[in-house]
Amino acid sequence: MKTSNTYNIMKITKNSISLLLIVLLCACAQEKKSTIISVKNTLDFERSFETVEIKKALLNVDNLNTIGLKDVNTGELQVTQLVDNDGDGTMDEILFQPKVASKSIAKFEVVTITDTEQPKAPYLCYSRFVPERTDDYTWENNKVAFRVYGPTAQKMIEDDVPGGTLSSGVDAWLKRVEYPIINKWYKKETETDGSYHVDTGEGLDDFHVGASRGVGGISVKVDTTYYNSKNYTKWRTITTGPLRTSFYLEYENWDSGGNTIIESKVISLDLGQNFSKFKVSLEGAKAISAGLTLHEKDGQVFGNKQEGWVSYWQPHADSELGTAIIASEDYFNDFETFNSDSTDLSNAYAHLNVINNQVIYYAGFGWKKSGQFNTKQDWKNYIITFSECINNPLEISLNN
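== DUF4861 domain-containing protein ==
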């Protein structure tokens, strides 16, 4: 016969076990909700200013707006940026720039946060259409700035109207400050007696493009002739923010020795980088050539086929300037120095493979006067490191 004491002890024990099971189940449920993003660096140097893209579908969440990324080791929330790639009003991916030590793995926990908890950072990656200066499209980050030219500028040339530009080359704006200058320089040019062609401490636009490829414009080579598109015809800004700006450009179909070329592209520029990424969609050719203008042909072309890059280092006004094109080993085929007696048609070309109607390459510059690169060797070292990172991308995995 069970005593009252025995009964009470059994009841307490049973309740304790039930409580323990509830705690364990809650702990398991909590553990399942913890999602960890692992970022692996296989190279023997620290990597930063490389943007990691995490797709919404990978995280399996309904809304990215409440998502934060917390460093597992330090507990520090990362600066992030949400991107709506297709323009449908829903964010498709979250960007961040982790710092990952040599040959190591950095881990970040996916957490739910409020807007006030999200770390704030200045919007240094910026781009826009510029109707007040014909129809440029211009972009920048904290290191460099670029622009391309639109259909109005093209029509002005075709109609013999002064002030137009007929070129699908890429212009370089030589800035030497880390804060944004696009709006300030255009306002100086269009609303004051000043000009962005004069350096008053922030840099200037004195990089001539003309019919050349500038810094990364493309051509299609047929036999010994290079064919170029005209100005872009359509544009769409995709994103601006603390980590990246990107935009879409479309071109009128163009001819390359009897072949019709269909071309569009997405160009992006990330915080801390001197190179814009060009993701070109192209039909009508099995290869393209991305070019660097040789200007007065008083500089030096050098490159490395195995590492996938070509560069041009030249005297430039009272300073020196390096330009370069880099691509992964899948796309990079070879490089060539093309000299012509015609104005602006001398370029250093990177010959790039078109794979499944797509080419991806990086084009950019380094200006000695900006203080980033003091010598040609400094610039070359930067290119080599950038190339290593392209060919050995950070490895991303997700563990629940």
